[in-house]
Amino acid sequence: MNKLVNCCKYFSKITINTTKNQYFIREYASHLSDYNIKWVRPEPVCITDPKKSGDLGIPHDIKATNLLAGYENSKELQDADEIVKKLVTLEFHPRKETIHVRREKILELVKRHKLDRGSPETKIAAMTAEILQLQEIIKKNPRDKKKKVFLKEIIEKRNKYLRIMRTWDYKRFEWILEKLNLVYKKPPLDNTPPYRKDSLRKLTQKLCDKIKQEKLDAYKAELQNQQKLFYTQKLEDFIFIRNEELELGIESTITEDDIENVRKKLNEF
């Protein structure tokens, strides 16, 4: 029986404490609303959004009537029938052939020579072509989690290559960004997600600093105004004392230079 009473007392204390905490939280929230401090959780950026990957799109003119890769310079195809020419176009082949042709066109933008496949520029261009293809697939199938994970891995790998190239050869880094129409964003130093409590503390501190600075500026303006009145009165007193000393035939303790210095300081205000 005693154990039951003790348990009831313990849970009653917990309920009282929780109600007090809720009361204080509500009071704190209303206090923040009085100062127009509001925090909205940032919306997550989708992996297909250019803000996340930095891909602004590469313009290309790939059509269904284009020939397959390797048939552009075929002499036999020039004298062939129209039906044969259509059979080697992208229209009558799987989509992977269209992806291959687009990938080759993107690689041609940064190739050092015709057989270049291992330079950092071609590797970045190949990853860019893969990223553009995966983004198209995910837009059609937004629930494909495997593709999203794969896309995220490729974007991080390409950013690693770009970061290395940025430190190694900055001119080539800018050149490849321009060729592939990319935007490189330096990774943040602090990757922790935003929390409401920490964000409200930062916003409150920012508001306090703003109020403090406004009061300091107002006090500084008031002091400057008082300095102007002080130098005005000082100039009048110096002129009066000098004139009185000259009329009485006493050696003047205030020179013309002193009066001119006071006049210069007054003109500054």
Explain how this protein is built.
The chain has 269 residues and is mostly helical. Helix content is 68%, strand content 0%. The chain folds into 2 domains: 7-42 and 194-268, no CATH class; 50-180, no CATH class. Helix 7 (145-168) runs antiparallel to helix 8 (170-180).
Which runs of at least 5 residues are low in confidence (pLDDT < 50)? 1-5, 7-27
Number of domains in the coordinates?
Answer: 2
The overall pLDDT, averaged over residues, is: 81
Largest sheet composition: none
Termini separation comes to 84 Å
Helical percentage: 55-70%
Question: What topology emerges from the helices and strands here?
Answer:
Elements: H1 2-34, H2 50-53, H3 75-78, H4 82-87, H5 95-108, H6 120-140, H7 145-168, H8 170-180, H9 196-247, H10 256-268
List its salient traits.
10 helices; single chain; mainly alpha; ribonucleoprotein; ribosomal protein; disordered N terminus; 269 residues
In short:
With 269 residues, this protein is mainly alpha-helical. 68% of the residues lie in helices and 0% in strands. α5 runs antiparallel to α6 and α6 packs antiparallel against α7.
